[in-house]
Amino acid sequence: MIQSGDEPQWEGAVNARHVLGSIYRMGRREWLTNVGWQQAHADGVETVIDLRNPEEVRRRPTDPQIDEAATAGILIINAPTEEPGHPVFERLAVPYMNHPRMYPVNLEIFPERITEVFHQIAAARGKIVLHCSAGRDRTGLIVSMLLKLANRTDLLESQYAASLRGINEWHKISPVKHPHESYIEEPDLIAPLNERLEALGVFLDSLGVESFLLENGLHPDELEAIKQKMV
């Protein structure tokens, strides 16, 4: 039986793992090969929710070529967690939203966008993959809220730590060098990881996820549907 944290065998997937119930997470979907898409669909994935801004959604020259048939049966939804060019957010999220200490700012400035992600999760068919670019912080924000909603905060640290290490390992071998991040050796990763986990804990201790979502337009039936997807 698949366990939280298990890595699915989807060819090309980067930083991919099972979260809970029917929820998965990963880095940008353009890394998946034709075979990877077929493997994800065979595992029951029918919905992919892309948390990136629309201008980030593009194929790179090093990404695999994908046949249209490869994604047959999988609905891809773009539901960004932020608004590009927002002056306050861009001033605070430097160089981008890349740390749990920025999660409260994201919710404060864009509550309707965060709630829209949860509308999409509630309505989604089949198993669901959440992803952003790295699969770490925008994805981590939504995943952390889902885990608190499911009363599985015991999984928060392992999920975030795996996502941090997962994209760090990718930086080691990526054919496209990141403009702001690079591979960090494990001994040097411990301190920043612990600092991030502390910020994540502070964020979730201060947030009533149910009340936040209901106050921002999620229907109680949708809330229940989301909980069922994490059983």
UniProtKB/TrEMBL annotation:
UniProt domain Tyrosine specific protein phosphatases: residue ranges: 108-158
Name of this protein: Tyrosine-protein phosphatase
